[in-house]
Design goal:
Blueprint lengths: L1 E2 L21 H6 L1 H13 L17 H4 L35 E2 L20 E2 L13 E5 L5 E3 L1 H4 L5 E8 L16 H5 L2 E10 H8 L7 E6 L6 E5 H6 L2 E6 L2 E2 L9 E3 L12 E7 L14 E2 L5 E2 L8 E6 L10 E10 L5 E7 L7 E2 L1 E3 L8 E9 L4 E9 L8 H8 L12 E4 L5 E5 L2
The protein binds ligand MTE and molybdenum atom.
Length: 438
């Protein structure tokens, strides 16, 4: 077993704070103070805060004795101040500048399948472009009958669709190829988010421009300083791509591409061009920087895979995890997320012994294609050390591989597309560590 080598700079949890005493569910219910502390730890990493006895039964708590805050105080709602630890975080040593950088979704603190807009990880190559939608134009040109330039208002008159999809950066988990590195669910897995997009189908836009007979490929380009661009195969564009202007019901956030982004369901995040300014139609791939020097998979023999578009099935247990130690013996809920860029998740298996024996977890509805799927598993913990794993299977029959199986095919030159089975070592004191088993 290989233990993680580096601790990330900012993670609250077992390394900073003592894990509260272990207790069974009955004891927990009769000691409300301890229960409050434990719950705070699970949700926000603030496990050390002790309850104020003046607010506990039989006292009337302070918030019941005074009027609350008036409605005008928060024209745009914010999370409770007690959730201030639930934020995107970056790893300061990872990139030289914040304009070409990434931060990570706090997966360990979320439930269900939707990522709140303010917690969606961000990845950009030239900073967040601040675009006035009145001045934004989207152009379609190349091998089309009618080159067109659209305003945002033009686009909003097309038939509208709304769909739930995950977006995962191909580099998610990319630091873990040579061993467990980051003792954190957020840093080892948080380059993924899942929201409901609203917009128009790319097919409708392409049809309005009229494709020429030799049209086979598209180039999508962003209006940010990086002018990031990627080649998209026409089949995919006509199948399920979207041009989105909303996420989770409101306008896209600036960091997610306001006012317009391309949605390429199931494909690597790099192809989901933000601040979308043009699509050029061509008859062959462009082989831009982002699909040659970057976002290709270097194999052991020195050759690189040309395109790796679809994100293979993957899963991770988000509790327990390094940020969420196990606080109680006896009954516990294991939960996590599974996803596949090739369709629906069919099953998620849980192992307590590093992958020797498996039992199926319960998938929570809805189970949608190319969308995060939430799973739960009931667990009686006896206080022994456990090698906890989850393994996703998708509707194509694909099974999430071990790191060993991945290395056998891919070698260790890779950065991208690391969908290995994650092992969390639950120690006898309840602390959880990122480890790799072989
Ligand atoms: N125009 C533009 N689009 C972009 C990028 C960018 O830097 N510029 N980054 C890409 C990468 S590498 C990823 S993983 C996703 C990240 O999307 P998010 O910031 O919404 O999480 O956007 C992609 N689209
Ligand atoms: Mo990415």
């Amino acid at each position: 077993m290989i233990r993680n080598k580096k601790n990330p700079p900012v993670v609250s949890g077992p390394s900073d704070q003592p894990v509260p005493g272990l207790m069974d569910r009955r004891t927990l219910l009769s000691f409300g103070a301890a229960a409050g502390t434990a719950a705070a730890g699970l949700l926000g990493g603030s496990a050390a805060r002790a309850a104020n006895p003046d607010n506990l039964p039989p006292h009337v708590p302070e918030w019941s004795q005074n009027l609350g805050v008036g409605v005008e105080d928060a024209p745009y709602g914010q999370p409770s101040e007690f959730e201030s630890e639930v934020v995107r975080r970056n790893v300061s040593w990872l990139t030289a500048t914040t304009e070409s950088s990434v931060n990570f979704t706090p997966l360990h603190a979320l439930d269900g399948i939707i990522t709140p807009n303010g917690l969606c990880f961000e990845r950009h190559h030239g900073g967040v472009a601040i675009i006035d939608p009145e001045d934004h134009r989207f152009m379609i040109h190349g091998l089309v009958e009618r080159p067109l330039i659209f305003t945002m208002r033009d686009l909003k008159r097309f038939p509208r669709i709304s769909r739930f999809y995950f977006l995962e950066c191909a580099a998610n988990g990319g630091m873990e190829w040579r061993g467990a590195q980051l003792n954190s669910c957020q840093f080892a897995h948080g380059m993924v988010h899942c929201v409901q997009y609203s917009g128009v189908s790319l097919r409708a836009i392409l049809e309005s421009a009229g494709l020429k007979a030799n049209a086979k490929w598209l180039l999508a380009e962003g209006a940010d300083a990086s002018g990031m661009n990627r080649t998209i195969p026409l089949d995919k564009a006509l199948d399920d791509c979207m041009i989105a202007f909303s996420m989770n019901g409101e306008a896209l956030r600036p960091e997610q591409g306001y006012p317009l982004r391309l949605v390429v369901p199931g494909f690597e995040g790099n192809m989901w061009v933000k601040w979308l300014r043009r699509i050029e139609v061509g008859d062959q791939p462009w082989h831009t920087r982002e699909e040659t020097s970057k976002y290709t998979d270097l194999l052991a023999d020195g050759r690189a895979r040309r395109f790796t578009w679809a994100m293979d099935a993957k899963s991770v247990i988000t509790s327990p995890c390094p940020e969420n130690p196990v606080l109680h013996k006896g009954h516990n809920v294991i939960t996590g997320l599974a996803w596949s860029g090739r369709g629906r998740i069919r099953r998620v298996d849980i192992s307590m012994d590093g992958g020797r024996n498996w039992t199926a977890a319960r998938l929570e509805a809805p189970v949608l294609p190319m969308c995060l799927t939430r799973f739960y598993h009931e667990w009686e913990w006896r206080g022994d050390s456990v090698l906890l794993e989850s393994r996703a299977l998708d509707e194509t029959g694909y099974v999430q591989p071990t790191i060993e199986e991945l290395r056998n095919v891919r070698g260790t030159n890779s950065i991208y597309h690391n969908n290995r089975i994650q092992t969390w070592l639950v120690n006898a004191n309840g602390e959880v560590e990122n480890v790799q088993v072989s």
